[in-house]
Predict the 3D structure of the following.
Amino acid sequence: MEGPKKLLLAATVFNILVLAAVLVVNAGAGDLGVKWGWFRNTTANISVKYPSDITPTPSTFAIWGVIYAYQFAWIIYSLSLLCRKSLNGYLYFTPYFMPLFFYVLYWFCQFGNIAWLFIWDREYLYASAPVLFMTAIFLVGSLATSMSALAEAASELIHEGKSRELWLVRGFVHNGVGMYATWLTVASHVGLSATLIYREPFLSMDVACSICAGVLSAFVVLYTVLDNFVLDKHTRYLFTPYVVLVWALVGIIQRGFDPERGSSIIVGLLLVYGLIAFVVKIVLVCVRSCKNPEPLTDAHAHKAI
């Protein structure tokens, strides 16, 4: 067991270094990076060069600060597990609720984040959207892995009087990764619209943006159904995807709502749906939590999602 323990310990520490690398490269994606010779253009300038009707206002992108702050918070939490013990050892390894595969998938996302900055800088639009989609997929996989592991370890954590770890993982890890994944999902659809407009098949602005907004809407509807009625035991206390979705959609509408454009109508309807879904989510959580505040105490919840 010493080998896996050391590997997981190294992964927990390495994770903060990965985040630091992402922050440095992202900070360099502006004028400083151009001055250093890392990039040919700033990320903002490329966005201006390839405008899209579903690109949010510049102020909307301030959410990146919140996203990275949240990533830092959950990583600090994970590091705290190296110093705190359960009955059978340190919490980073036993119970096994922060698995190695969770970190690996998360790193793939972070490396994809860095790769996208250089792809976008070189204006490889055909590759830009797929890379963003893949980063979002890696994050969803990472989140699912964490939820599954937490469900498996829930009984042991509760038995050892460590039930607060369930809430800390949900509050920091799940909601932090969920926030990141949601924003990248929205960003990938924005990137896809730019590809459809400025590269083959050179669709019109409204057609391309309507397609991408429609696909995003389908994802949102699917997610809300799964979240509230299929995966409730795992996702009951996951709220950040709704907050990020509403934030992004408001940013898109603020950029310029035009009832004559199909994309604007779709985004407007999606915003209304997102707000209603968020209210429904809160109501369902309140009702279900009154009956059973800890969904993972149900034996069926220990099955991997």
Residues 1-300 form one domain. The chain has one domain: 1-300. The beta strands are 85-86, 89-90. The chain has eleven helices and two strands.
